[in-house]
Structure formats: structure tokens, C-alpha cells
């Protein structure tokens, strides 16, 4: 990406007065979740962050917007920032994005700025069609909308984000960057489920995989950390946030990932079950009398750590387990056992593993999870330097023992920077 960036052409937009064009190098990135919007404004001329923020608990009485300006009020780097918080109900995503636009405008960095080159949107499901970042027009938006049944928790919010941003700034390209894109290289025999082929084709049933923007960024950053070209590095990436997924990346190309048709399969997550016998669904319907929607909600929103022990935040699970709480200890043990299984499985898939990399909220911060997941895997070449592993740091770093054959790394993910980079590259190419 960096190489592509240096050869950039410029985007020109008219000034507000409609006179001479100015060079636009800012990208606003929107990551809209079901009840939250995370955003960042970046200047791609030097890849710096100008403002970051979060709106959470959208639709509740207790909504909260936190906005942080990271540069001087006139956009000058290093001139000191400002952090503001707004509490009180924000009814929906439309209102949330309106509030975000207001905060940016208050800092002189509003959506009407002639310096805005693009808005980059995280879109979770891109189906089989969207394997590249894509400028959104009516037809593309309709296709993203048609994928809502495959990502009901995520795509509706992504669609709203695009609609609102388009309305606020119709002349600036809206670029969709898809979670599924990086995984589109999986071999057909990996992507296919072993079900009737005609049925699978009719209903677009296959493994798509998610968090691809993070898996792509982190696998490249791991190669950089090892000081090797990405083509020479085989890595298992463990993205452990609220949603969690593993991927096996051979020489920069994804060959397998744990999430499937939807972001429900695979690892134990904050509120999602991950892998289970599909017959659990039939049993709940036939014997439990639950509707399909009730089972969907149970497995997506009331399972995982939350379902097993009542807390979905790993910090809380660790605290309770440390105090001897049995349900929390079992939930933690299930979480790391599933991780261990995927590390083993993907070691077999890759044949040779150069690194196992932990990322996202849990992966970057919970040293206990890393320690427990790697424990006992010496035969696979994995061993930690426990002291290095326990150190907190925002930097990419190695935490493996010096003698270990396979590196264990902690690499902070940066989906927003990756989305901005891809969006900017597309509009300036
Ligand atoms: N210090 C910490 N120790 C353990 N877990 C943490 C810590 N900080 C954050 N987390 C976990 O990270 C999760 C959020 O990760 P994040 O990548 O931000 O998720 P998402 O992007 O899916 O919202 C939280 O639910 C919490 O469990
Ligand atoms: C796809 C997915 O699971 O995303 P998130 O972790 O943001 O919920
Ligand atoms: Mg995330």
C-alpha cells in the first residue's frame, strides 16, 4: 500500500466558492455497527489522524458520543488536541452521523470541507461479487442491501452510513471496503460446505469470512515485524474483538478463515457461540419450540462468553475467574480451548507456520488469553516469553521465547487506516 501511496495522483475538488480546485487528501472512515458508529478522519498525505470518535448505545436513552481532535483547531499537526463527550439519547444511525458531522464541523473539519477526498465505509458482507474496494453508486448500494440477510447485525448499519454520508456530501466518492474481500482467495474446496451443491449455489451458501481488512493489515504487519517480505511468511492471525475470527494466511494470501456464511461460525466470541453441531438448531426448534428468529438471536446475541457466564467483556470474565467464579472460569477455558483447536488446525492447513499473531481488543490486551492459548503447544513450535507477553504496549511486538520455532506476535490492528488507504488509493488511481 505504501508503495502505491507514494505514486499517488491528487484528487481535486472545487472550493466552497466554486473557484480554483484544491488538493484533497482527507478520508473520513465510518465503521457502523448495529448500535455504534466508530469514525476517524485521516489525512492521507502523511497518513496522520486528525480526529477520531465513537457513538455508542444508539437508540437508547444513554447514548454517548466521544469525539477527539488530535491536531490543532486549524488542522495543524502537533498543535494539541481536544476531547469532548456528549451524553443523551441519539435515536438512530442517521442522528448519530448528523452528530458526528456537527463535531467535525465544530473543529473546522466538517463534511463540507473541500479537502475531503473520499468517505471510506466498512461494509461487512460483500458476497461473492465485491472482492475489491468499490465506489458506491445506486446499483452497488442495492447489492449491499440485498446481502442484509447474510449479515443482519452489520450490513443494515453499513447501508445507513453510506446513505447518510451520500446525502451530506453527494459529490465526494463513497468507497465501500468489504470485510469479506481478503478471504475471496480461499480455495473452492475450503469455501464450500459439504452440503448439496445445487442447494448451496441456489442460496449462495459458502464460507465468506469476515474481519478481512484486519486480517490483511495484520498479516502484512507481521511480515514487517519479522523483517521478511510478505510473500515469504505464513501466519495464523487471531482477531479477538467482540466478534472473533482466525485466519490462515500463506504468503499474504488468505487460505482459510473461521467465520463462514455469516460472522457466527468459528471461535467463541463475546455474544456469539461460534462452532456448534447444526442439530442444536433443529433440537431447539423441535423440542424447545423456539422460532428461527429466536434461535438466531440466542446464538448471535446471547451466547459466547455472555451466554456461558453472563459477561461478554473479557476483562470482567478474567476478573471473575480470578476470584474463583466457576462459570467465568469455564467460559474462559472454552474460549481458549477453541483458540487452541484453530491454531492446531491452521498449523496443519499451512504446513509451515512462521508466526501466530494476536490482535483486536482481547488479542492485544489480554495476556492471559495469549498465555493460555499457546500453553502446551511446544510440539507445534510455539512457546512464549512470559515476561515479554505480560508487558502492555501499543506497539507491534514479539512475545515468543527466543528458542521457539514459530514467532508469537501481538500486532494492534488498524482497520480504519487500512480502509482509508484502500479508499484513497481507489479514488486517486
Ligand atoms: N485490557 C483488556 N483486557 C482484556 N480484554 C480487553 C481489554 N481491553 C479490551 N478488551 C476486550 O476487547 C473487546 C473489544 O474489542 P474490539 O476489538 O474493540 O471489538 P469490536 O471492534 O468488535 O467492538 C472488549 O469486549 C473486551 O472484552
Ligand atoms: C464481522 C464481525 O464480527 O464484526 P465485529 O467484530 O465488528 O462484530
Ligand atoms: Mg472490531
TrEMBL record:
One Gene Ontology MF term: acetate kinase activity
Pathway of action: Metabolic intermediate biosynthesis; acetyl-CoA biosynthesis; acetyl-CoA from acetate: step 1/2
Catalytic residues identified in the record: 179
Listed InterPro entries: Ac/propionate_kinase (IPR004372), Aliphatic_acid_kin_short-chain (IPR000890), Aliphatic_acid_kinase_CS (IPR023865), ATPase_NBD (IPR043129)
Gene Ontology CC: cytoplasm
SUPFAM superfamilies reported for this sequence: Actin-like ATPase domain (SSF53067)
PROSITE patterns to which the protein is assigned, alphabetical: ACETATE_KINASE_1, ACETATE_KINASE_2
The UniProt record lists the keyword Magnesium: yes
Domain of life of the native organism: Bacteria
Cofactor note: Mg(2+). Can also accept Mn(2+).
UniProt family annotation: Belongs to the acetokinase family.
Role this protein plays: Catalyzes the formation of acetyl phosphate from acetate and ATP. Can also catalyze the reverse reaction.
HAMAP family for the chain: Acetate_kinase
Protein's UniProt name: Acetate kinase
Organism: Streptomyces xanthophaeus
